[in-house]
Amino acid sequence: MTKYTLTYFDVEALGEPIRMLLSYGNLDFTDNRIDFEKDWAKFKAAMPMGQVPILEADGKIMYQSLAISRYLARLVGLYGENPLEDYEVDNAVDNINDFRAKLAGAQYEQNAVAKEEKFKLLKAETIPYFLEKLDAIAAENDGHFALKKFTWADVYFTGMSNYLSVMAQEDITANYPNLKKVIENTVATPGIKEWVEKRPKPKV
Fold first, then answer.
1. Domain GST C-terminal: where (predicted)?
2. Beta-strand (E) ranges in 37-179?
3. Is the domain defined by 3-76+190-198 classed in CATH 3.40.30.10?
């Protein structure tokens, strides 16, 4: 049986969808959490692109969080049944990731004045726009993001949801019941439910 090792920081963020997919598939994995302050400098040089997460499996090192997630989603059966359905799932994930990129652009802005301006735009336009669109998609799909069934798009959103809320500086599901339903459906799913109950609390 393949043994997996996921290496990421002691946060949810980009690593949590991967942890959830591994747990959903009942795939044995080591959750290797590195301390950014103490250990990242020595780890970074050894990473394929100088970044994490990475997933090791039988000597193969995989990197890029979305590529890892797609690999696992296919492995555990959380894609569609044909190329068109796969497109629907990937489209949903790309919508969520576009939202993440908009938030990150403000969250990690180093110039204080520019950061303030970016957050003003986020609060006034970007956040409401994306959340309304995403909530409507979830409503159309009965509490899912694609195909009216559980796919890795739901896992990706759920795993990223706390990170998205931190970057948005608000609970992104507070006024969006269909997004809440996606999360509720996901965390009640066997495998993921057990992971959520036992996962360590991140330091950050």
1. 82-204
2. 54-57, 60-63
3. yes
